[in-house]
Protein backbone atom coordinates (compact mmCIF):
# COMPACT_ATOMS: atom_id res chain seq x y z
CA UNK A 1 0.00 0.00 0.00
CA UNK A 2 2.81 2.40 0.85
CA UNK A 3 4.33 2.37 -2.67
CA UNK A 4 0.89 2.92 -4.16
CA UNK A 5 0.16 5.71 -1.68
CA UNK A 6 3.54 7.28 -2.42
CA UNK A 7 2.86 7.14 -6.13
CA UNK A 8 -0.51 8.79 -5.67
CA UNK A 9 1.08 11.51 -3.57
CA UNK A 10 3.64 12.11 -6.27
CA UNK A 11 0.89 12.32 -8.86
CA UNK A 12 -0.96 14.87 -6.75
CA UNK A 13 2.21 16.94 -6.36
CA UNK A 14 2.80 16.72 -10.09
CA UNK A 15 -0.78 17.79 -10.77
CA UNK A 16 -0.47 20.70 -8.34
CA UNK A 17 2.78 21.73 -10.00
CA UNK A 18 1.52 21.51 -13.60
CA UNK A 19 -1.19 24.14 -13.22
CA UNK A 20 1.14 26.94 -11.98
CA UNK A 21 3.74 26.08 -14.60
CA UNK A 22 1.13 26.14 -17.35
CA UNK A 23 -0.15 29.48 -16.07
CA UNK A 24 3.37 30.92 -16.07
CA UNK A 25 3.98 29.71 -19.61
CA UNK A 26 0.66 31.17 -20.70
CA UNK A 27 1.45 34.56 -19.17
CA UNK A 28 4.91 34.53 -20.73
CA UNK A 29 3.39 33.71 -24.11
CA UNK A 30 0.89 36.56 -23.81
CA UNK A 31 3.69 38.97 -22.86
CA UNK A 32 5.77 37.90 -25.86
CA UNK A 33 2.80 38.38 -28.20
CA UNK A 34 2.05 41.81 -26.75
CA UNK A 35 5.71 42.79 -27.10
CA UNK A 36 5.68 41.74 -30.77
CA UNK A 37 2.50 43.73 -31.29
CA UNK A 38 4.01 46.81 -29.62
CA UNK A 39 7.13 46.46 -31.76
CA UNK A 40 5.03 46.41 -34.94
CA UNK A 41 2.21 48.78 -34.04
CA UNK A 42 3.85 51.70 -35.87
CA UNK A 43 4.24 49.58 -39.00
CA UNK A 44 0.62 48.38 -38.76
CA UNK A 45 -0.68 51.93 -38.40
CA UNK A 46 1.59 53.15 -41.20
CA UNK A 47 0.35 50.46 -43.60
CA UNK A 48 -3.29 51.04 -42.68
CA UNK A 49 -3.08 54.80 -43.22
CA UNK A 50 -1.08 54.45 -46.44
CA UNK A 51 -3.63 51.97 -47.81
CA UNK A 52 -6.51 54.31 -47.02
CA UNK A 53 -4.81 57.36 -48.49
CA UNK A 54 -3.78 55.50 -51.67
CA UNK A 55 -7.31 54.20 -52.22
CA UNK A 56 -8.85 57.63 -51.62
CA UNK A 57 -6.47 59.36 -54.04
CA UNK A 58 -7.04 56.77 -56.76
CA UNK A 59 -10.81 56.79 -56.25
CA UNK A 60 -11.62 60.45 -55.72
CA UNK A 61 -8.69 62.32 -57.31
CA UNK A 62 -7.81 60.13 -60.28
CA UNK A 63 -11.39 58.85 -60.68
CA UNK A 64 -10.82 55.08 -60.85
CA UNK A 65 -13.90 53.12 -59.84
CA UNK A 66 -12.02 50.01 -58.63
CA UNK A 67 -8.58 51.13 -57.43
CA UNK A 68 -7.99 47.96 -55.42
CA UNK A 69 -4.32 47.72 -56.35
CA UNK A 70 -3.45 51.20 -55.01
CA UNK A 71 -3.73 50.14 -51.32
CA UNK A 72 -2.15 46.76 -52.08
CA UNK A 73 0.85 48.39 -53.73
CA UNK A 74 1.24 50.81 -50.81
CA UNK A 75 1.34 47.98 -48.26
CA UNK A 76 3.67 45.79 -50.31
CA UNK A 77 6.06 48.69 -50.89
CA UNK A 78 6.26 49.57 -47.21
CA UNK A 79 7.25 46.10 -46.08
CA UNK A 80 8.91 45.39 -42.74
CA UNK A 81 12.43 46.57 -43.61
CA UNK A 82 12.87 50.31 -43.84
CA UNK A 83 16.13 50.12 -45.77
CA UNK A 84 14.55 48.16 -48.63
CA UNK A 85 11.52 50.36 -49.25
CA UNK A 86 12.93 52.35 -52.16
CA UNK A 87 13.88 49.13 -53.92
CA UNK A 88 10.47 47.65 -53.11
CA UNK A 89 8.71 50.63 -54.69
CA UNK A 90 10.76 50.33 -57.86
CA UNK A 91 10.34 46.56 -58.10
CA UNK A 92 6.58 46.69 -57.59
CA UNK A 93 6.17 49.40 -60.23
CA UNK A 94 8.29 47.57 -62.80
CA UNK A 95 6.67 44.24 -61.98
CA UNK A 96 3.22 45.69 -62.41
CA UNK A 97 4.18 47.34 -65.71
CA UNK A 98 5.53 44.06 -67.09
CA UNK A 99 2.60 42.00 -65.85
CA UNK A 100 -0.05 44.43 -67.07
CA UNK A 101 1.62 44.85 -70.45
CA UNK A 102 1.93 41.13 -71.12
CA UNK A 103 -1.60 40.51 -69.83
CA UNK A 104 -3.07 43.23 -72.06
CA UNK A 105 -1.45 41.79 -75.16
CA UNK A 106 -2.81 38.31 -74.51
CA UNK A 107 -6.29 39.51 -73.67
CA UNK A 108 -6.32 41.56 -76.88
CA UNK A 109 -5.29 38.71 -79.18
CA UNK A 110 -6.15 35.45 -77.38
CA UNK A 111 -8.90 36.26 -74.89
CA UNK A 112 -9.11 34.58 -71.49
CA UNK A 113 -9.14 30.98 -70.32
CA UNK A 114 -7.08 28.39 -68.49
CA UNK A 115 -4.36 27.99 -71.18
CA UNK A 116 -4.07 31.76 -71.56
CA UNK A 117 -3.66 32.25 -67.80
CA UNK A 118 -0.95 29.58 -67.57
CA UNK A 119 0.94 30.95 -70.54
CA UNK A 120 0.61 34.64 -69.66
CA UNK A 121 1.82 34.15 -66.06
CA UNK A 122 4.80 32.10 -67.21
CA UNK A 123 5.66 34.63 -69.90
CA UNK A 124 5.33 37.68 -67.61
CA UNK A 125 7.55 36.11 -64.96
CA UNK A 126 10.09 35.05 -67.60
CA UNK A 127 10.25 38.59 -69.00
CA UNK A 128 10.80 39.94 -65.49
CA UNK A 129 13.63 37.46 -64.87
CA UNK A 130 15.26 38.34 -68.19
CA UNK A 131 15.13 42.00 -67.12
CA UNK A 132 17.19 41.09 -64.05
CA UNK A 133 14.30 41.25 -61.59
CA UNK A 134 14.41 40.07 -58.02
CA UNK A 135 11.89 37.75 -56.41
CA UNK A 136 9.44 40.51 -55.53
CA UNK A 137 9.41 42.03 -59.02
CA UNK A 138 9.07 38.62 -60.68
CA UNK A 139 6.18 37.66 -58.41
CA UNK A 140 4.42 40.96 -59.01
CA UNK A 141 4.73 40.51 -62.77
CA UNK A 142 3.04 37.10 -62.57
CA UNK A 143 0.35 38.32 -60.17
CA UNK A 144 -0.54 41.33 -62.28
CA UNK A 145 -0.62 39.34 -65.51
CA UNK A 146 -3.05 36.88 -63.89
CA UNK A 147 -5.25 39.65 -62.48
CA UNK A 148 -5.39 41.58 -65.75
CA UNK A 149 -6.24 38.39 -67.61
CA UNK A 150 -9.02 37.35 -65.22
CA UNK A 151 -10.38 40.32 -63.25
CA UNK A 152 -9.67 43.08 -65.78
CA UNK A 153 -9.95 41.48 -69.23
CA UNK A 154 -10.66 44.88 -70.77
CA UNK A 155 -7.38 46.03 -72.36
CA UNK A 156 -8.28 49.64 -71.67
CA UNK A 157 -8.19 48.98 -67.93
CA UNK A 158 -4.50 48.06 -67.98
CA UNK A 159 -3.14 51.60 -67.78
CA UNK A 160 -5.44 52.47 -64.89
CA UNK A 161 -4.03 49.52 -62.91
CA UNK A 162 -0.48 50.59 -63.66
CA UNK A 163 -1.35 54.12 -62.54
CA UNK A 164 -2.85 52.73 -59.33
CA UNK A 165 0.40 50.87 -58.66
CA UNK A 166 2.45 54.03 -59.19
CA UNK A 167 0.12 55.98 -56.94
CA UNK A 168 0.33 53.35 -54.21
CA UNK A 169 4.12 53.34 -54.48
CA UNK A 170 4.31 57.12 -54.19
CA UNK A 171 2.09 57.09 -51.11
CA UNK A 172 4.25 54.32 -49.59
CA UNK A 173 7.39 56.31 -50.28
CA UNK A 174 5.91 59.39 -48.60
CA UNK A 175 4.79 57.32 -45.62
CA UNK A 176 8.23 55.73 -45.34
CA UNK A 177 9.83 59.11 -44.68
CA UNK A 178 7.86 59.26 -41.41
CA UNK A 179 10.09 56.84 -39.56
CA UNK A 180 9.49 55.60 -36.01
CA UNK A 181 11.86 56.79 -33.29
CA UNK A 182 12.17 53.15 -32.18
CA UNK A 183 14.40 52.44 -35.18
CA UNK A 184 16.88 54.96 -33.72
CA UNK A 185 16.70 53.80 -30.11
CA UNK A 186 16.71 50.07 -30.79
CA UNK A 187 20.35 49.70 -31.99
CA UNK A 188 21.66 51.34 -28.81
CA UNK A 189 19.43 49.18 -26.61
CA UNK A 190 20.42 46.05 -28.51
CA UNK A 191 24.14 46.88 -28.22
CA UNK A 192 23.70 47.36 -24.48
CA UNK A 193 21.97 43.97 -24.18
CA UNK A 194 24.79 42.24 -26.07
CA UNK A 195 27.48 43.82 -23.88
CA UNK A 196 25.64 43.03 -20.65
CA UNK A 197 25.22 39.44 -21.79
CA UNK A 198 28.94 39.18 -22.51
CA UNK A 199 29.67 40.59 -19.05
CA UNK A 200 27.38 38.01 -17.45
CA UNK A 201 29.06 35.22 -19.43
CA UNK A 202 32.49 36.33 -18.21
CA UNK A 203 31.29 36.49 -14.59
CA UNK A 204 29.83 32.98 -14.85
CA UNK A 205 33.07 31.72 -16.38
CA UNK A 206 35.08 33.33 -13.57
CA UNK A 207 32.85 31.67 -10.96
CA UNK A 208 33.32 28.28 -12.58
CA UNK A 209 37.10 28.66 -12.59
CA UNK A 210 37.10 29.98 -9.03
CA UNK A 211 35.14 26.98 -7.76
CA UNK A 212 37.50 24.64 -9.59
CA UNK A 213 40.62 26.35 -8.25
CA UNK A 214 39.39 26.62 -4.66
CA UNK A 215 37.55 23.27 -4.63
CA UNK A 216 34.93 24.86 -2.36
CA UNK A 217 31.83 23.98 -4.33
CA UNK A 218 29.31 21.95 -2.36
CA UNK A 219 28.52 20.09 -5.56
CA UNK A 220 31.67 18.92 -7.30
CA UNK A 221 29.89 19.16 -10.66
CA UNK A 222 28.72 22.74 -10.15
CA UNK A 223 31.84 24.31 -11.64
CA UNK A 224 31.46 22.09 -14.71
CA UNK A 225 27.80 23.06 -15.08
CA UNK A 226 28.67 26.74 -14.76
CA UNK A 227 31.29 26.55 -17.49
CA UNK A 228 29.02 24.49 -19.73
CA UNK A 229 26.21 27.02 -19.30
CA UNK A 230 28.60 29.91 -19.94
CA UNK A 231 29.78 28.22 -23.14
CA UNK A 232 26.19 27.72 -24.29
CA UNK A 233 25.43 31.39 -23.68
CA UNK A 234 28.61 32.45 -25.46
CA UNK A 235 27.59 30.45 -28.52
CA UNK A 236 24.08 31.93 -28.44
CA UNK A 237 25.46 35.46 -28.28
CA UNK A 238 26.06 35.30 -32.04
CA UNK A 239 22.30 35.48 -32.58
CA UNK A 240 22.15 38.63 -30.43
CA UNK A 241 24.85 40.18 -32.59
CA UNK A 242 22.82 39.37 -35.70
CA UNK A 243 19.88 41.21 -34.15
CA UNK A 244 22.14 44.17 -33.43
CA UNK A 245 23.48 44.17 -36.99
CA UNK A 246 19.93 44.20 -38.39
CA UNK A 247 18.85 46.95 -36.00
CA UNK A 248 21.91 49.04 -36.87
CA UNK A 249 21.33 48.63 -40.62
CA UNK A 250 17.72 49.69 -40.24
CA UNK A 251 18.68 52.64 -38.07
CA UNK A 252 21.23 53.84 -40.63
CA UNK A 253 18.64 53.48 -43.40
CA UNK A 254 16.15 55.51 -41.39
CA UNK A 255 18.47 58.46 -40.80
CA UNK A 256 19.59 58.45 -44.43
CA UNK A 257 16.14 58.31 -46.01
CA UNK A 258 13.92 60.14 -43.55
CA UNK A 259 14.34 63.93 -43.54
CA UNK A 260 12.80 63.96 -40.06
CA UNK A 261 15.53 61.77 -38.54
CA UNK A 262 18.71 62.95 -40.21
CA UNK A 263 19.83 64.90 -37.16
CA UNK A 264 20.38 61.53 -35.43
CA UNK A 265 22.78 60.28 -38.13
CA UNK A 266 25.91 60.67 -36.01
CA UNK A 267 24.56 58.77 -33.02
CA UNK A 268 23.13 55.95 -35.11
CA UNK A 269 26.33 55.58 -37.12
CA UNK A 270 28.30 55.48 -33.88
CA UNK A 271 26.37 52.38 -32.81
CA UNK A 272 26.68 50.81 -36.27
CA UNK A 273 30.47 51.24 -36.03
CA UNK A 274 30.47 49.06 -32.90
CA UNK A 275 29.33 45.95 -34.77
CA UNK A 276 32.72 44.95 -36.22
CA UNK A 277 34.84 45.21 -33.03
CA UNK A 278 31.96 43.72 -31.02
CA UNK A 279 31.87 40.78 -33.43
CA UNK A 280 35.58 40.19 -32.82
CA UNK A 281 35.09 40.48 -29.07
CA UNK A 282 32.28 37.90 -29.13
CA UNK A 283 34.43 35.47 -31.10
CA UNK A 284 37.37 35.89 -28.72
CA UNK A 285 35.17 35.50 -25.65
CA UNK A 286 33.62 32.36 -27.13
CA UNK A 287 37.09 30.82 -27.60
CA UNK A 288 38.08 31.96 -24.10
CA UNK A 289 35.04 30.37 -22.46
CA UNK A 290 35.41 27.16 -24.45
CA UNK A 291 39.03 26.82 -23.33
CA UNK A 292 38.06 27.43 -19.71
CA UNK A 293 35.40 24.74 -20.03
CA UNK A 294 37.94 22.34 -21.56
CA UNK A 295 40.32 22.96 -18.67
CA UNK A 296 37.60 21.99 -16.19
CA UNK A 297 36.53 18.94 -18.18
CA UNK A 298 40.15 17.76 -18.37
CA UNK A 299 40.88 18.69 -14.75
CA UNK A 300 43.65 21.09 -15.79
CA UNK A 301 45.00 23.57 -13.29
CA UNK A 302 44.45 27.27 -14.03
CA UNK A 303 46.44 30.09 -12.39
CA UNK A 304 44.76 31.46 -9.27
CA UNK A 305 44.63 34.97 -10.73
CA UNK A 306 42.54 34.06 -13.78
CA UNK A 307 39.09 34.44 -12.15
CA UNK A 308 40.05 37.96 -11.08
CA UNK A 309 41.18 38.79 -14.62
CA UNK A 310 37.86 37.58 -15.99
CA UNK A 311 35.98 39.61 -13.38
CA UNK A 312 37.85 42.75 -14.43
CA UNK A 313 37.17 41.96 -18.08
CA UNK A 314 33.48 41.63 -17.19
CA UNK A 315 33.63 44.99 -15.36
CA UNK A 316 35.06 46.69 -18.43
CA UNK A 317 32.41 45.14 -20.67
CA UNK A 318 29.62 46.23 -18.34
CA UNK A 319 30.99 49.78 -18.18
CA UNK A 320 30.99 49.96 -21.99
CA UNK A 321 27.31 48.98 -21.94
CA UNK A 322 26.65 51.78 -19.43
CA UNK A 323 28.61 54.25 -21.56
CA UNK A 324 26.06 53.89 -24.35
CA UNK A 325 23.64 55.84 -22.14
CA UNK A 326 26.07 57.51 -19.69
CA UNK A 327 29.13 58.76 -21.62
CA UNK A 328 31.09 59.28 -18.38
CA UNK A 329 31.29 55.49 -17.94
CA UNK A 330 33.47 55.29 -21.05
CA UNK A 331 36.39 56.81 -19.15
CA UNK A 332 36.06 54.20 -16.41
CA UNK A 333 35.84 51.39 -18.97
CA UNK A 334 38.99 52.66 -20.71
CA UNK A 335 40.85 52.78 -17.39
CA UNK A 336 39.77 49.29 -16.28
CA UNK A 337 40.67 47.71 -19.61
CA UNK A 338 43.98 49.56 -19.82
CA UNK A 339 44.97 48.33 -16.37
CA UNK A 340 43.95 44.80 -17.31
CA UNK A 341 46.01 44.94 -20.51
CA UNK A 342 49.11 46.03 -18.59
CA UNK A 343 48.52 43.38 -15.93
CA UNK A 344 48.41 40.57 -18.53
CA UNK A 345 51.73 41.79 -19.93
CA UNK A 346 53.45 41.38 -16.55
CA UNK A 347 52.06 37.97 -15.65
CA UNK A 348 54.38 34.94 -15.94
CA UNK A 349 53.63 32.62 -18.83
CA UNK A 350 51.59 29.66 -17.50
CA UNK A 351 52.63 26.09 -18.22
CA UNK A 352 49.40 24.50 -19.45
CA UNK A 353 48.04 24.89 -22.99
CA UNK A 354 44.58 25.95 -21.83
CA UNK A 355 46.00 28.59 -19.50
CA UNK A 356 48.17 30.02 -22.30
CA UNK A 357 45.19 30.16 -24.68
CA UNK A 358 42.98 31.86 -22.08
CA UNK A 359 45.64 34.47 -21.36
CA UNK A 360 46.04 35.21 -25.06
CA UNK A 361 42.26 35.48 -25.52
CA UNK A 362 41.94 37.86 -22.60
CA UNK A 363 44.54 40.13 -24.19
CA UNK A 364 42.83 39.97 -27.57
CA UNK A 365 39.44 40.74 -26.02
CA UNK A 366 40.87 43.74 -24.18
CA UNK A 367 41.99 45.20 -27.52
CA UNK A 368 38.53 44.62 -29.05
CA UNK A 369 36.75 46.17 -26.08
CA UNK A 370 39.07 49.19 -26.06
CA UNK A 371 37.98 49.85 -29.64
CA UNK A 372 34.40 49.94 -28.39
CA UNK A 373 35.36 52.86 -26.15
CA UNK A 374 36.39 54.88 -29.22
CA UNK A 375 40.09 54.00 -29.08
CA UNK A 376 41.73 53.29 -32.42
CA UNK A 377 43.10 49.82 -33.07
CA UNK A 378 46.73 50.99 -33.03
CA UNK A 379 46.22 52.88 -29.78
CA UNK A 380 44.44 49.90 -28.23
CA UNK A 381 47.39 47.66 -29.05
CA UNK A 382 49.73 50.08 -27.31
CA UNK A 383 47.59 49.87 -24.19
CA UNK A 384 48.15 46.09 -24.14
CA UNK A 385 51.97 45.96 -24.06
CA UNK A 386 53.85 43.19 -25.82
CA UNK A 387 55.14 40.36 -23.67
CA UNK A 388 58.79 39.39 -23.65
CA UNK A 389 57.90 35.71 -24.16
CA UNK A 390 56.29 36.36 -27.58
CA UNK A 391 52.64 35.88 -26.55
CA UNK A 392 51.14 38.71 -28.58
CA UNK A 393 47.62 40.06 -28.42
CA UNK A 394 46.94 39.79 -32.17
UniProtKB/TrEMBL annotation:
Keywords: Membrane, Transmembrane, Transmembrane helix. The keyword Glycosyltransferase does not apply. One of its GO terms (cellular component) is membrane. It holds the Pfam family FUSC_2. The chain crosses the membrane at residues 41-62, 93-111, 117-141, 162-183. InterPro entries: Memb_transporter_dom (IPR049453). This is Aromatic acid exporter family protein. It comes from Kribbella antibiotica.
Amino acid sequence: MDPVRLTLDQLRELRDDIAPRAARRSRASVRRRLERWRDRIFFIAQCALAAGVAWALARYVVGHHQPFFAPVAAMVCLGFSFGQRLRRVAEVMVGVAVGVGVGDLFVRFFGTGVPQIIFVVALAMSVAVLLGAGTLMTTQAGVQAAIVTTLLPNPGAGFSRWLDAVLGGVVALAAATIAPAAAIRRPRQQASEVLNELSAILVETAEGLRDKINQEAHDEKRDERELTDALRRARNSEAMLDDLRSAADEGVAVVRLSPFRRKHRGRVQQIADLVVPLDRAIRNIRVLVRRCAVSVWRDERMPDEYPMLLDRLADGTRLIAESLFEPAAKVAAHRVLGELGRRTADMPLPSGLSAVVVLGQIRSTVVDLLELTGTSYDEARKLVPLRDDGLDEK
